[in-house]
Amino acid sequence: MATPTIDSAALTSGAFGPAAALSCRECGERYDLGPIFACAFCFGPLEVAYDFSGGVTREQIEAGPNNIWRYAPLLPVSADVASRPNLNPGFTKLVVARNLGRELGLKDLYVKDDSGNPTHSFKDRVVAIALEAARNFGFTTLSCSSTGNLAGAVGAAAARAGLRSCVFIPSDLEAGKVVTAAAYGGELVAIEGTYDEVNRFCSELIGDPVGEGWGFVNVNLRPYYGEGSKTLAYEIAEQLGWRLPEQIVIPIASGSQLTKIDKGFRELIKLGLVEDAPYKIFGAQAEGCSPVSAAWKAGHDVIRPVKPDTIAKSLAIGNPADGPYVLDVCKRTGGAVEDVDDTQVVDAIKLLARTEGVFGETAGGVTVGVLRKLVETGQLDPDATTVVLNTGDGLKTLDAIEGTTGATATIRPSLDAFRAAGLA
Amino acid sequence: MATPTIDSAALTSGAFGPAAALSCRECGERYDLGPIFACAFCFGPLEVAYDFSGGVTREQIEAGPNNIWRYAPLLPVSADVASRPNLNPGFTKLVVARNLGRELGLKDLYVKDDSGNPTHSFKDRVVAIALEAARNFGFTTLSCSSTGNLAGAVGAAAARAGLRSCVFIPSDLEAGKVVTAAAYGGELVAIEGTYDEVNRFCSELIGDPVGEGWGFVNVNLRPYYGEGSKTLAYEIAEQLGWRLPEQIVIPIASGSQLTKIDKGFRELIKLGLVEDAPYKIFGAQAEGCSPVSAAWKAGHDVIRPVKPDTIAKSLAIGNPADGPYVLDVCKRTGGAVEDVDDTQVVDAIKLLARTEGVFGETAGGVTVGVLRKLVETGQLDPDATTVVLNTGDGLKTLDAIEGTTGATATIRPSLDAFRAAGLA
C-alpha cells in the first residue's frame, strides 16, 4: 500500500473531533488516525475509537442543524464541519406508519425513510463522513467501486466539495444506472469484468503510486465511512423522543450498517442521552443472497459466501465482511436474521407504497418483507415500538416492479367507458 | 357541475385556518369557501383570501415542525394540520451554490432544491393543501390528470391519508412513468387520447353525478392546491435569515407557482416578517413551449397558445392559465421572462449536477439554463442575492441526458489499461 500522506497538524487540531484512534475490532490493537483499514497484526477491520469525556447534551444536539451534523460531537469530524461545503444529508423522516402497522398487526410502527437523502439513499450519510476524512488526509480524488447508489453519492458529494471524483463500475451495468452515476460529471470508469474484479482492481490501485491522493470511501476511508451509519441510530432515538426502539429491522449488505446502528444505540446509552432499555436488532436479507441468514438459521458463527442472485442488487454482497459481527449483535440483543424471496420483496415494496406513500428501493422491500415474516412467525412483539428501515428510493429500481404494476384500466375518454370499466 | 357537498360545521370551526373566502382574481367577487374554482359572473379563477388579523411571529414559525406546516397560520388549513396523516412535505434545502455562482459570475447564489420532497417534486406541497381541503369537504377520492409528477404526488398523499386515489393519464405515457405513478397502488386509468383529452374527460367527470365525492386537486380543489406554492416563498425567506431574495428564477408551466411565490413574498412583507425590500421575479420556459416568454418579448399582455415540443415535459403546458398574471408579476417587480432550447436545458442539468451535486429534472435545467442566459444578457445583477428553483428530480427524466452522458472510459481491470487510458 502506498504510504498515506497525513497532515499531522490537522490531526492534532480537532479535525476528527472526538475520534481518538483506530482500533482493531479483532485484537484491540490501536493505531493513530490515518487512511488505514486493516490491522497490521491480525488483518482485522479497524474502527474508530472515541473519547467522549467531553460529553454532549440533548439540548446541544437539538440546537444543531437539521442534518447529520447535529451529531458532530459523536462523529469523527471537526466541530465546524457544517460550515464546509457538503451535501448535508440526514435527519430524514421517521414516518409514523399507522396504516402499515394496522395491516401487519403492529401497534407502534415507524418507517425510517432514508430515500429523503440528497441522492436518495443512506449512502449520503457514510460518504459525508468519508469526505471529511479525505479532506483531513489531503486527498484530492474521491473514489469507490459501485454498482449503483454509492457511485451517485460519491459523485454528488465530490461535486459539492469541489474534489475530483473517479468511480469504478462493471461495464455491463444497466444504462439507467450508468446515467445516474455519470450525471454529476465526475470520471466514471467502466471495468470489463464482474463487480468482484472491479473491487480487486481498486485494491491494486490503492497499493500503487498511481493511487496516491485517492480516497476510496469504502476501502482506505472505510473506518470513517462506516461511522456515518451511526447517525441512523441517533436520529431514530431523537425522533422517538429520546428513547430507543424496542425492535428494529435493518437490511444486511456488508453488515456494517447494522453493527453501526447497534454501536450508535450503545453510545447514546453510555452518554446518558437515552434510558438504558433493551432493544432487539433484526437483520434482513434477500433469499437470493442470504449468507448471514443461512448462518443464523444453522447456528453457525462463520459466514459461507454465496453467489448473489436477487433483484435486491444494493444488498447483493455474497461475502459480507461484517457478517460475523451481525450474528453477534442479533444474538446479544435477542433479535434474529431472516430472509424473503424476490416475490415477497416486490409485494413488500408495493405494500409500503400503498399503505404509507413511501416508494422504497428493493432493499426497502427486503426489510418490510422480513418485518412481515417476523410478525407472521411470532418473532416480533406486536405491542413493542418497532422501526423498519427504508434505505433507498424506488425510482432507482423501477424494473423490480415494472412487470407487476401498471394501469388499472385503459379506456376511451368518455363517461360511458368509465362506467363500463366499473370505476364509478 | 354536481352540487358540492360541504360540511358547513367544519368550515366554521377553523378547518381552513386564516382563509376567509374565495375571491375572483378578475372581478373581485367573493364566495364562501367551497370546492369551486371559477367565478360564476366572469369565469375568472378563484383564489383564497385570508384574514391575517391574528398575526404570526417568526418565533411561532421557527417553533413549528420541519415541513410546510410550520407556516400553517398562513395557509388554508386548520391549526392542528400537522397531527393528521399526510406526507409532511417541504422545508427542503436552500443550497448555498458557491460553485455554480462562481461559474456563472453570481456572488450570492442559492438553489432551492425541491427534489428533497417525499415524491421528489414541488407537487407534494400543493397536493398536501388540496388533501386538507378534500378532507374538509368530505371527499373520499383524490384525483388528478397528469403526465408525471402530479400522479405520484396524489397517489402517495392519498395512500398516507387513507383515501382512495384515482388518477388519469394519457395511454401513451412512457412505461417508467406509468410504473412510478402506479407504485402507490391507487387506481390509474389510462385514457386513449392526448393530455388535453384527458383533461376534458376529467372536467366531464366532475360535472357528472359519478364524480360526486371526488376531489380533483388541480380542478375543483385548485384554489387551495395553488396556495401550496406560497410555502416556497416562506421557506426561501426564512432560510435566507428572514429576508427576501433580490432576484429569483422560477419555472413556468401553468404559471401558478410563480404568481403564488410573489403572493407569499407580499404576505411576508405585509405581516412584518421580512423587511419591505424590492425583489425581481424572472420566469423560465423551454423554447419548445414558451408562450409566456413569447408574449413578454413581443410586449403583449395576452398569451397565444402553442403546441408543446420540448424535453421539459413537466412544464409543457401550451395554454398556461396564469400566463397573463405571470406577465403582470414580472413587469411589476422589474423581472423578465426568458427561454432556453432543449440543448441548453441538458447542458444546465449537467452544470447544476457537476457544480453542486444536485441532479435536477428537466424543469431544473430550464431554470438554471435561463439563469445563465439572464446573466449573459446582463438582465441579472451579479452582486444581488439570487435564488434559482429546482422543482423536481433528475431520476424522473433520465432519458433527457441519457444520450449525452456515460462512462468516461471502458478498460480492462489492470493498472496498465488505467494508465493507457490517461486516467492516472
Automatic annotation (TrEMBL), chains A, B:
Matching InterPro entries: Ser/Thr_Dehydratase (IPR050147), Thr_synthase-like (IPR004450), TrpB-like_PALP (IPR001926), TrpB-like_PALP_sf (IPR036052)
Keyword Nucleotide-binding assigned: no
Cofactor(s) in the UniProt record: pyridoxal 5'-phosphate
Signal peptide: none
Residues annotated as domain Tryptophan synthase beta chain-like PALP: 89-392
Pfam families according to UniProt: PALP
Enzyme Commission numbers on file: 4.2.3.1
Statement: the UniProt record of this protein carries the keyword Lyase: yes
UniProt keywords, alphabetically: Lyase, Pyridoxal phosphate
Annotated PANTHER family: L-THREONINE DEHYDRATASE CATABOLIC TDCB, THREONINE DEHYDRATASE, MITOCHONDRIAL-RELATED
Similarity section: Belongs to the threonine synthase family.
Name assigned to this protein: Threonine synthase
Organism from which the protein derives: Yinghuangia aomiensis
Upper lineage: Bacteria, Bacillati, Actinomycetota, Actinomycetes, Kitasatosporales
